[in-house]
Design a protein that fits this description.
elongated, mainly beta, 2 helices, 426 residues
């Protein structure tokens, strides 16, 4: 998609607890439907696809396919749920805020977005079965772009504004099974929902009438992904391997196109069921090393095969996307009750490099980021408050493209409660 003499104007809208879980869940679903990005690149495909990890994973560069769910849930691999203790119920709650600076070779804008990010609950059903249920974003759309277009066959110019908002959310249910000692498999079933709006507003000229074309997708569809984990002991280290997979899937939606004129009267409309929103197959691999009580390190690689996928009214080539993530969590001091508070904290660091599925003007859009995080115990070193700061650069100003510099602050809680203790009365 070419941008000639383009000006970008981007807007964003901000998007221990058993008794309040359902209230928070309702708020999470409501908040998830808000606008949560200001990236112009979210105009393409399903929008800006979100990292599926919680705050802990984000602090480790988004890595964690090989890590199990110990005292915190790991959503990056459905098989990880078998790591949940049989007496614990784990809740995860997270919110985030993002500040972005967007620039071309001649113009710059800034913006802010923030929202409640996720809510999840994990527990073990029986000796070998465990699972999780939750709600989280899958992708976000949020942009406002003005572009000069030429009337075909003439030198006449008109201004078109492209505005998009909404996103795809997922309510998911994970089931994991321990096939054998240290070998687990899992399947994640998600109900994908949300609304995607794309508006094209044409300013009037002598030969072009004022017009607005609105395209809406009301999404209701099922999505599946799968995972496997294997763990072994190597001297003093626990070594873990993980793999994830999701096949190509078409998301079903009700697609509505409406055309209005300068007096906002409808001059044309169409409505039909559609499956043009395609999510291609994805592979993920990870390896982890853990020295209990001292450090955990993880490396992930993910490949999603966007090459050959086509979306209507989009004429750019999609390319395969790649993601490389590395993260480490360290505990410099042995954790003890008598320690000063900071000596019982988890300290996290991560780096991530990924290439998106977008190739514009011959350039593949990439994203480079680093992250830092803390895990602060709330009670008994089991429940924790997690903080993550992430800074990154996406895109480029070459070839009249857009560079985004961003800073992300995320706050999450991993809450452990004992729900399944059978009380004895003598």
């Amino acid at each position: 998609m070419g941008y000639k003499n383009t000006i970008y104007i981007v807007y964003a809208l901000p998007g221990c607890m058993r008794q309040v879980y359902f209230v928070i869940f309702f708020v999470a679903v409501t908040a998830a439907s808000g606008q949560n990005t200001i990236s112009p690149y979210s105009i393409f495909g399903p929008g800006e696809i979100q990292n599926q990890g919680f705050t802990t994973n984000q602090a480790m560069g988004g890595a964690g396919i090989s890590l199990n769910s110990g005292n915190a849930l790991n959503r990056l691999n459905p098989a990880s749920c078998t790591g949940i203790d049989s007496l614990h119920v784990i809740s995860e709650i997270g919110a985030g805020a993002k500040f972005s600076g967007l620039s071309t070779s001649s113009h710059s804008e800034t913006g802010f977005s923030g929202s409640l990010k996720y809510l999840a609950l994990g527990f073990r059903y029986s000796g070998r079965f465990a699972g999780s249920i939750g709600v989280a974003p899958f992708s976000h759309i949020g942009y406002s772009i003005e572009k000069e277009n030429y009337v075909e066959g003439t030198n006449a110019v008109y201004i078109a504004e492209y505005v998009g908002s909404g996103g795809i959310n997922q309510f998911y249910f994970t089931n994991a099974f321990e096939v054998a000692r240290n070998l687990s498999v899992g399947v994640n079933t998600s109900f994908m929902f949300g609304s995607l709006m794309q508006e094209e507003k044409i300013s009037p000229t002598d030969i072009v009438p004022q017009m607005q074309i609105t395209r809406m997708d009301y999404l209701k569809s099922i999505y599946f992904d799968y995972g496997l984990q294997y763990m072994c002991r190597l001297k003093k280290l626990d070594v873990s391997f993980g793999a994830t997979y999701s096949h190509q899937q078409k998301l079903k939606s009700k697609h509505i196109v409406t055309v209005t004129n300068e007096s906002y009267s409808t001059v044309g409309s169409d409505e039909y069921n559609s499956n043009h929103l395609i999510i291609p197959q994805k592979f993920g691999f990870g390896i982890g090393l853990e020295n209990k009580g001292r450090y955990v390190a993880a490396f992930d690689y993910e490949l999603q095969q966007w090459s050959g996928v086509e979306y209507p009214i989009q004429y750019n080539d999609f390319v395969n996307s790649h993601s490389f993530s590395f993260g480490i969590q360290v505990n410099p001091w042995e954790q003890r009750v008598i320690n000063k508070s900071f000596k019982n904290w988890d300290y996290r660091f991560g780096v991530n490099y990924k290439t998106s599925y977008l190739k514009i003007g011959g350039r593949v859009i990439d994203d480079k980021s680093i992250s830092l995080g803390l895990g602060i115990p709330l009670s008994g070193n089991v429940s924790k408050m997690n903080l993550t700061f992430k800074a990154g650069i996406a895109g480029t100003t070459d070839n009249n493209l857009i560079l985004e510099k961003y800073a992300l602050l995320q706050l999450g809680f991993s809450l452990n409660e004992f729900w399944f203790i059978r009380r004895r009365y003598d």
